[in-house]
């Protein structure tokens, strides 16, 4: 090939001259035919290795084609690759297994292959830290999972465990690929096994961005967090058509498995976001509070928020009347850095608040009773919600700050028949098992067994404070007097005596169950100083295969 790019023409002309010479010399058709074949072969130049790679790379980007991508956009959804681009730092994505194809031959599938097999997998960065991600492509076979599809996901999960980095799954799938039969089911089980092995080792986050049905629902359920995109994400074991056939119920996709169902009723989802971009940005924000793995300490960020910032407004944040409600989230926002609080499950079991924040740049998990909803009472759903949150924090070395204002456990037959004893014990178990730094502040009420459960000193609380108007007792004065002083001639005087002796923080402080009674304005500074002191905390539980939490 010369510099002018005329190499092919020159080769072709040379071959023609060679052919004519051979014909003249041999005078036979066999030589003529051989030379013609040689001419054809030489004139067709094979693509270079770089050209073949470029063609293969281009084919891997096609997915299900432009028409299906347009339909995805019409539904308000991004494509699989667009989602990855939004989630990760610009230019950081490195794809794995881009050229893989399924190996199925049944039902004509051997003639229907899409490069990549309906899922994009690889690793990249979020705020400079390594994460592994898979994004199911609904334009390719409806994002259905076959064996190769599963193998691609398993590979990045294995790699994440190897290096100690989070895994993020962007789910948009019609479920198991029926044409592959039991191989598709085997693929799901392989993923489930890895979800369990990674649990508590590396953070796992699932985002439901489209349908997720049948076996596809169980991998998100096994991860640390499951988020949904409003109006496009659906989670259900069986869809509306099957429900109709089996139970004769008429139900829509949204009613059965939409974001409202799972963020307010079932508690399966930890939050719902307005659209793909909003949800992916929130995932980036959440990961800021988490270490790369359970081998790392909770992240430490730079903050300009002063340790001794003026929070004197906390003095009036809690009403003096113990029966007056207030929003505990206002207290949380005033205490944490930059007033930023990432709430988890904000629409489920609203009588307890859980979420992530930072104090002097240090990630913390926050648990708080919410007097604005059902007086902050503990019930089945609140207990389960808080228990899972506490265990997640403990698994990833995130200190726990607990704000207590709880009148007790909710009484009634519905709670008793529903198993409040067992479910309430989950929260007790979670706090008792946790070995991370545990800081507790009693804001107002801490009554009965709920006082014990809410990270009390007796459950290895590291530092336990109370505000001056706190009440730590078996129950409120009125209820206690009605039992202890039944038939007493002057119940008002008996109530006043009970309040003096029990409805204040000092009996608990005298016994060492409260380390100090502090002014509300000092809470932020004291918590930050305690976190610094507890950085070297070294506590472990007895060696065992695993505990038997009352599931």
Report on this model:
The protein has 551 residues and is an alpha/beta fold. It contains 21 helices and 17 strands. The protein has helices spanning 7-26, 29-43, 49-60, 66-74, 80-87, 147-163, 182-198, 218-222, 240-247, 253-257, 259-265, 276-287, 328-335, 380-395, 413-418, 420-433, 448-453, 477-484, 491-501, 506-510, 523-533, and strands at 94-96, 119-126, 129-136, 167-171, 204-208, 211-213, 225-229, 234-236, 271-273, 342-344, 352-359, 362-369, 400-406, 438-447, 463-466, 471-473, 516-517. A hairpin with a 2-residue loop joins β11 (352-359) and β12 (362-369). α6 packs parallel to α7 (182-198) and α18 (477-484) crosses α19 (491-501). The N and C termini lie far apart (74 Å).
